[in-house]
Design goal:
Elements: H1 2-19, H2 24-39, E1 41-50, E2 55-62, H3 73-83, E3 89-92, H4 98-107, E4 111-119, E5 122-132, H5 138-182, H6 184-202, H7 209-237, E6 245-249, H8 250-268, E7 271-275, E8 281-285, H9 286-302, E9 309-316, E10 320-327, H10 334-337, H11 360-371, E11 375-381, E12 385-393
Parallel strand pairs: 7-9
Antiparallel strand pairs: 1-2, 1-5, 3-4, 4-5, 6-8, 9-10, 10-12, 11-12
């Protein structure tokens, strides 16, 4: 066991700290994979502590097929508990506090080794090892993990710092692109058509007043929505959006969003259909979920042609509430769908009526769903339409 532990130390020091210093996902996968190889845990999960947003972010799960467990609210709470520890400890159903024991029971875990990662008294992250296959040599394993925890913390910090710089640079580019181009265009349009409208009124030519005023109204609404997304996005980047979950009826919230967007849909000849049980309650941040649904429906309206329809559905699953917004629009090419929620994705397609977009709304959607420890994805087929799905934990009253 000592030889194997020393070999593992060697790999951790050189492979993880150096080779994967700029790839957090691969770093985490390498660390969690080698921990499983060393001590045979059923599942090994690694989290990184995001200081700005004050929450744990998933780095890796081994084996990867167990990715589903990483979004479990009980696991997040257990990881937060482990983050507060000072050193490597074993938690189990029999000897832990009642709260921790209940969490382990809900997760179906008999025993979990918690490895808090810290540098200079700063909490970097945590590694959880569920249900090791053998207790033989456990003391040696724990001692080895204690020695390695500092190396894991340093490697994780370096990798996540590099990733943060990449995202920060992309965020800066996106922000200035919107300010310099996407926000300027609607105001140029408003100024231009308001000047035409003013001239027409002076000349007592009232024939086109309704047309020009409608253009100004539509453009103003688009500019306002862009500003709203831009403000919320900038606040989310600095961690200034508070997360306030509460119980509310999903159907009522969707109704309020439909009321807001129905006029735009009607003008384009697009029908909005809601298929949600009137008594379906969710536990979530109302404002964030409203923003997500508003952006997804707005996108569907933009990319759906006259005579098409949009359907909003929701299903209560065992662990999650799954919500979908489906349209009969133009669809999304596979190469664009793959990166559609990433800040580094700078492309945006014109709508069916040449509506402009920035892609900012979808980035904001992912930010808010991540805040709920949920998941968001899209299935799409060219000329047949797209369905955007997102999940949030099903936390019952």
């Amino acid at each position: 066991m000592e030889d194997k532990a020393n070999t593992f130390l060697y790999f951790a020091l050189f492979e993880n700290a150096l080779k994967y210093s700029d790839k957090p996902g691969e770093l985490g996968q390498n660390i969690t994979g080698q921990i499983r190889e060393l001590i045979g845990g059923r599942t090994v999960i690694m989290f990184y502590n995001d200081d700005v947003k004050q929450k744990l972010k998933l780095m890796a799960v081994s084996p990867e097929r167990r990715l589903d467990i990483a979004k479990n609210i009980e696991l997040i709470k257990l990881a937060e508990h482990c983050l507060a520890m000072e050193e490597v400890e074993i938690l189990d159903q029999k000897h832990s506090t009642s709260v921790v024991s209940q969490r382990l029971t809900k997760l179906g875990v008999e025993q979990s080794i918690c490895i808090p990662l810290s540098l200079d008294e700063k909490k970097i992250g945590v590694i959880l090892i569920h249900d090791i296959f053998s207790d033989s040599g456990l003391d040696t394993v724990l001692n080895t993990l204690k020695k390695l925890s500092g190396i894991f913390a340093l490697a994780a910090k370096n990798a996540m710092s590099f990733q943060s710089l990449v995202e920060l640079n992309a965020t800066k580019d996106k922000f200035f692109s919107i300010i310099a181009h996407d926000l300027k265009i609607p105001f140029n349009s408003i100024l231009g058509f308001s000047e035409i409208l003013h001239t027409e009124i002076i000349n007592k030519n009232y024939d086109d007043i309704e047309k020009y005023s409608r253009i100004i109204q539509t453009t103003s609404n688009n500019a306002f929505n862009l500003l709203q997304n831009l403000l919320e996005w900038s606040r989310s980047q600095t961690g200034k959006i508070d997360f306030h979950p509460e119980y509310f009826l999903l159907s009522e919230l969707v109704d309020s969003v439909i009321d807001l967007l129905e006029n735009v849909a009607e003008k384009k000849g697009v029908a909005i259909i809601k298929v949600i049980s009137f008594d379906l309650k969710v536990y979530a941040d109302r404002h964030m979920i409203e923003t997500v649904i508003r952006n997804l429906i707005s996108n569907s309206i933009k990319y759906t042609t006259k005579g098409g329809d949009i359907t909003i559905s929701a299903n209560a699953l065992t662990e999650n509430i799954q919500i979908s917004i489906s349209d009969t629009g133009v669809g999304i090419p596979p190469e664009k769908a793959e990166n559609i929620f990433q800040i580094t994705n700078n492309s945006s397609t014109l709508g069916t009526n040449n509506e402009k977009g920035t892609g900012l709304g979808l980035i904001l959607c992912k930010e808010f769903i991540d805040e709920h420890n949920g998941k968001i994805w899209v299935n799409s087929e060219i000329e047949k339409g797209s369905t955007f799905y997102f999940t949030i934990p099903n936390i019952r009253e």
